[in-house]
Design a protein that fits this description.
Helix content is about 40%, strand content about 20%. It has eight helices and seven strands. It has a seven-stranded mixed β-sheet, with helices on both faces. The protein is of the alpha/beta class. Bound molecules: S-adenosylmethionine.
């Protein structure tokens, strides 16, 4: 899928040339965005938990003006940057808050990209349960995160994230990567049918995508 990177990144121009360039580079290089956009629902609300500056929402808006979009992040600087970029956009809300306790809207699709590992394992499982609970019947949850136990790719990812947290680039309680089986088990325990796909094209990191489908109402 060809992403509308130029149109989406141009929204970040008011934040300066670096902000726009960074957005363009991230949107063009991260395979998680295409993985989500390829699976957008026919209707309903798309939620992005830990949305950062809202890059996924900007891309989703560029391809699907009809969808309701909702994003949440606990870093006020990132939320402010996203709100500036997406200001005035109808049917879109970008809020500051913690995914672990914020009220979540009912959603046809929920994305949560590279967020889980900033919280301890028990909190990861609790968050996955909240996300499963917020999904509408038939809805899809897309969680991308790194896995431990995948050799040097896992090691490199852990070092890179520890460095980013130490520098203050990402806020979190620490860095907690787990084997892919752990999030799978948590999602299955909440009734989702789970598939795991690699999601690291173009990067050296041990990233995987968890797809959790909620059953249709009976
Ligand atoms: C690596 S960034 C990924 C941003 C975005 N998902 C993306 O892929 O472009 C991780 C984001 O998760 C956010 N985050 C971490 N823990 C969070 C929490 N408990 N509640 C809300 N946001 C959180 C961070 O502030 C950061 O913006």
């Amino acid at each position: 899928m060809t992403l509308p990177v130029d149109a989406a990144a141009a929204r970040y121009r008011p934040g300066g040339r670096f902000a726009e360039g960074f957005a363009r580079g991230k949107m063009a290089s991260d395979p998680a965005y295409a993985a989500v956009l390829e699976r957008l629902p026919p209707a309903g609300l798309v939620a992005d938990l830990g949305c950062g500056e809202g890059y996924l929402l900007a891309l989703a808006r560029a391809v699907r003006p009809d969808l309701d979009l909702w994003g949440l992040d606990h870093d006020p600087r990132r939320v402010a940057a996203g709100q500036r970029a997406l200001a005035g956009e109808p049917r879109l809300a970008l809020l500051a808050g913690d995914a672990r306790d914020a009220a979540l809207p009912r959603a046809a699709l929920i994305a949560c990209l590279d967020v889980l590992h900033y919280m301890a394992p028990a909190e990861q499982d609790a968050l996955l349960g909240r996300l499963a609970g917020a999904l509408a019947p038939g809805g899809l949850l897309l969680v991308r995160d790194g896995e431990s136990g995948a050799g040097w790719r896992s090691t490199l990812l852990r070092w890179s994230e520890q460095f980013a947290v130490a520098l203050g680039r990402h806020r979190g309680d620490g860095v907690f990567f787990r084997p892919a089986a752990a999030p799978c088990a948590a999602l299955e325990a909440h009734g989702l049918a789970v598939e795991v796909l690699p999601c690291r094209e173009g990067t050296p990191f041990a990233n995987v995508l968890f797809l959790g489908r909620k059953p249709e109402a009976t």
